[in-house]
Each structure stands twice: as structure tokens, then as C-alpha cells.
Specification:
The chain contains 3 helices and 8 strands; from the N terminus they run βαβαββββββα. It is α+β, with helices and mostly antiparallel strands. The protein has a single domain, classed as Roll (ph1033 like fold), CATH 3.10.590. Strands 1, 2, 3, 4, 5, 6, 7 and 8 form an 8-stranded mixed sheet that branches. The protein is globular, with a radius of gyration of 14 Å. It comes from Pseudogulbenkiania ferrooxidans 2002. Belongs to the UPF0310 family. This is UPF0310 protein FuraDRAFT_0321.
Length: about 140
């Protein structure tokens, strides 16, 4: 069964992953990535432009499907050894979350809608994924 997920990372990190065909979450931890399966949908939400930055972005920044394979570790050369998963990213535009908040099941009527994002990876209902994809101009296969 295909599942849908929201992953959380700064836009600069998401853009690098899009360019190189991968995703990573939760500061490179493997366990969250093991929850995803091949064919699962993932959409990235970026609260900020830069990691550790204070300038808010609050936008969906990437959408794609998880490729076959398990999480794998990479050496960033500075002692950081994050785990990643390969993703087939779709052509999409970044889309602000604010206009969608009242229409998404996970946030409608909720004042603290961003609270679950603290965990870095949150399961998402498919209708919400489709609404986000439309806002991003991404074409999802049926």
C-alpha cells in the first residue's frame, strides 16, 4: 500500500536533495527513513530558507516518490554521516502553506498546526497530498 508523508527540512537542504535525487530527515537519522517504502509519496515542508535561519519560508518545496532500495549512509567529509533515501522528484513549484491551512485535514481548524512537524516526518492523508500537489503545479499519476 502506498503511503504519503510530509518531511521537514530547510529549503536549502531540500533543494540539494532534489538536485541530487535523495532525501534525508531528522538530521540524517536512519530510523525515520525505514518507515518509508518504495513508491510512497513524500512532500517536503520547509519552515525556513536556511537551516538554523530565522527567516520564515513556510512553503512546500518538493514532491516525489521513494525509489526502491533501503536507506544508505553517506560520508559528508566533515564527520557527518547522514542516512538518505533515493527519490524520484516531480517537476513542481514551491507553494506557501498558509493558503492551504483551512483546506488540509491535518491543519483545518487547528491553531498549532505545525506542532507535528517537530518530529521531521509525519504521515499524510492522500487527499491532502493531492491538494498540496495541485498547489505546487505537480502532476500526480492516478
Amino acid at each position: 500500500m502506498r503511503r504519503c508523508w510530509i518531511a521537514v527540512a530547510s529549503a536549502e537542504h531540500v533543494r540539494r536533495g532534489r538536485a541530487e535525487g535523495f532525501m534525508q530527515v531528522c538530521h540524517g537519522k536512519a530510523a525515520p527513513l525505514r518507515r518509508l517504502g518504495p513508491g510512497d509519496w513524500v512532500v517536503y515542508y520547509s519552515p525556513t530558507e536556511r537551516f538554523g535561519g530565522s527567516t520564515p519560508l513556510r512553503a512546500f518545496t518538493a514532491i516525489g516518490t521513494v525509489r526502491d532500495g533501503e536507506p544508505y549512509q553517506v560520508d559528508m567529509g566533515d564527520g557527518f554521516l547522514p542516512f538518505r533515501r533515493d527519490v524520484r522528484w516531480l517537476a513542481a513549484q514551491e507553494a506557501p502553506i498558509m493558503p492551504l491551512l483551512d483546506r488540509l485535514a491535518f491543519s483545518a481548524g487547528k491553531r498549532n498546526w505545525g506542532y507535528p512537524f517537530r518530529f521531521g516526518l509525519v504521515e499524510l492523508a492522500e487527499p491532502d497530498l493531492r491538494l498540496i500537489a495541485a498547489a505546487m503545479g505537480a502532476v500526480l499519476p492516478e
